[in-house]
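Sat 14:20. Reprocessing the chain from the morning session after the first attempt stalled halfway. Input below, unchanged.
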Amino acid sequence: MNIYGLLEGPVPFVFQAAILASALLLLAGRSVHKRVAAADGALLPDEGITIRNVFEVMVEFLADLGQSTIGDDYRRYFPIVGTLFFFILIANVMGAIPGIGGATSDVNTALAWALISFAVYNYVGIKTHGWKYIYQFMGPALWQPEIAGKHWHVRLMAPLFIPLELLLHGARIVTLTVRLVANMFADHTVVTVWLSLIPIALPAIFMGLGLFVAFLQAFVFALLTMIYIGSALQEAH
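Finished this time. Tokens:
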């Protein structure tokens, strides 16, 4: 049983869970924005552990990671990576709470984010390099003759590399989806089983581990997306 039971007929569970996760994310963002916009709010941190402090720590952590992974131009792509990370994190945490459930335990949500990640990094590559982006799929330039004052990159192994690279890039969608769904489903199942067997004390340990898994899976998803973007920005040789 979960809190979505009343609307489960007309509105599928995954939509309700995704809407709730989005609403929580918007409310948290609004709370942080209101605090930062207050007098001296941007200069003085809150005392103790607050939503703002938690958000700022995670954003700074992601920003440092983005700069080292994507490069100095990471700010341009940080909004989509941050949105991806925080939505998955909130949905994962929701799934670890009995009776609530999270959207990321459903393959449709994980697949949607995997497709977004795939579309974003390929768009970045095409926008940055134009038609030369296809060089990323054609293997190394084994011969670079100079003709009419211009260097030409001859990729003799392109017939072998193109289908292989297309397959590997497509597999990224599958691995992102399966990794997220499998880990979150397994974590939620373990908590549910222990709650049914021993409803006191012991399940709390697994719920604590579940919070760690929730953060870890959101982090891995965001990290891989940043790696893919950084790879798409690099010029093929």
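The chain has one domain: 5-233.
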